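It would be a great kindness if you could assist me with a short task in structural biology. The matter concerns a single protein, recorded as an amino acid sequence and a row of backbone structure tokens. Kindly check, if you would, that the fold set down in the tokens agrees with what the sequence suggests. Thank you for your consideration; the sequence and its tokens are set out here:
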Amino acid sequence: MTDGTKTEHQAVETTAHEERIITETGVDARIAGIIEPVLESIGFRLVRVRLSGLNGLTLQIMTERFDGTMTVEDCELVSRTMSPVLDVEDPIDRHYHLEVSSPGIDRPLVRKSDFNTWSGHIVKVDTSAVLNGRKKFRGRIAAVTDDSVTIESDQASYGDEPVIEVPFELISDARLILTDDLIRDALRRDKDLREGRIPEEGAASPDDTESAEREQTKQD
């Protein structure tokens, strides 16, 4: 019989398999389906996949460890692991560059727990449908429930609601806005995580330039 209290291992296990509420479409979604289980098997979780025309064609894999940390060495490990997987599955029919990166401080928020972790900070949210006459919102994360996030505008225009509750099911994109407070809290949280003082997920990497790149060449 247990007292219902989660151990640190159980907490990490739960967040490790937390589904994203913001996901990809098209070829990005196909790539995400290929790499996500591989990432989890080596101790990482997917944040975002994006195929862009940068430098000819670039596949960006944004990822982090289950505790929210990410180092340059982690990026290199993910890159080395993903390259042969992508070679075999062959989801892209052209030459491309593979770039593995950390989410950075002004990170995308893709899971409900991300909104909880960064509660109190300023976020920009886009919705897939009109909500109170708008599809774009910016403000401080004031509250988070299982179904929605409440945003208090930090620069409300005339006629706009200063406080809006946005259902998670309507969110198509969400990203933290870089502020001095966010930088300070992200650096402090990352340091605490690395030193073992925060036994949970959700820290941002202090350097959003941490990445590993390599050219991925499709064999004809």
User: Anything to note?
Assistant: The two ends are 59 Å apart (CA to CA). The helical segments are 8-16, 26-41, 72-89, 112-117, 180-194.
